[in-house]
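Problem 12. The chain below contains 286 residues. Write out its predicted structure in C-alpha cell notation.
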Amino acid sequence: MEHGPAVRRRKLGTELRVLRTRAGLTSTEAARLVGWHQSKVSRIETGSSGVKPADVRLLLDTYDVRDPELRELLLALAGGGDGSGRQNWWHAYRGVLPPTYRDFISLESQASGMRTLETSVVPGLLQTPEYARAVTRAACEGLADDKLDALVEVRLARQDVLRGDPPLELNAVLDEAVLRRAVGGPEVMARQLERLCEAAVLPQVRLRVMPFTAGAHIGVTGPFVIFSFSNTSDLDVVVLDHLTSSLYLERKEDLQAYVEAFNALQIHALSPEESLDYIAGIAAGA
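Solution.
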C-alpha cells in the first residue's frame, strides 16, 4: 500500500514504457529523440522521479500516441490536462485541499468507472449541498466558514463527472446505515433520500442497498473505492480512506480481492429496483 502520488508515478511510468516499446524504441533512442539523458527516461519509467505534463506530452508525441483519451489520462496522472482547464479545476482549491484529496479527484475525473462501498455516508458524487455541508462540518470541526464553503464547492463540482460525455459510471453499494443516519437533521436527510431516488434511475448510476437484515458481510471491514479506466486495466486502483490520509492499492492481487469483494456485496445486496423501492420507503417514513 502506498500514497497516491507514488502509485500514480509508477503507473504512468509503466504505461510510458509500454508505449515506447510499441514504438520500437529503446530508452536510449527515445532519450536521444527528445534531447534527454537516458537516465531521465529510466527514472520516469520506473516511477522513481516525478515528471512534468510537458515532458509526458513530448514523449507521447515522440511515440506517436494519438488516442486523445489515452493522452488525457496519462497527462492527468502527471498532474496536467489537455489544456482545456477542466481537468485541473481543483487546482484553484490547493490551499484547502490536502494532496491526497487532489490526487483522488484527479483519478476520479479521468476514470470511466467507479465501484464503491459506503458504510456511513452517501457517496460524495450523490450528496446534496446541505448534506455535503453537514458531513464536512462534522468531519472538520472548527473549520472556518470560508474553507467550509470551499470544500462544499469542491464536493459539488466533482459531481460534474456524472454529467460528462461520456459520464462516469457509478456503481455503489450502500449499507442501510447510510440511509438511516440523520445527517444534518430530518429536512436535510429527506432531501438527500429524494436525491438518491433521482440518481437511482439515471443510466450511469447503479445503486444497491445492503439492508440490516443481510447481517454480517464482507463490507464490514470498511468502505472502499475501485477506479477503472477504459484505456487500460493496468491503471485500475483501489482507494482506502483514513482519517488523515488515503491509501492506494495497485497490485493485481489486491485489485482482484476488492473486485471479488464488491461482486459478493452486489450478490447479497438488494437489486437496483428493490433498492430504489427501499430508499423510497425510508424516505416516505422520514
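Discussion. The mean pLDDT is 88. Students who got a different answer should revisit the alignment rule from Section 12.3.
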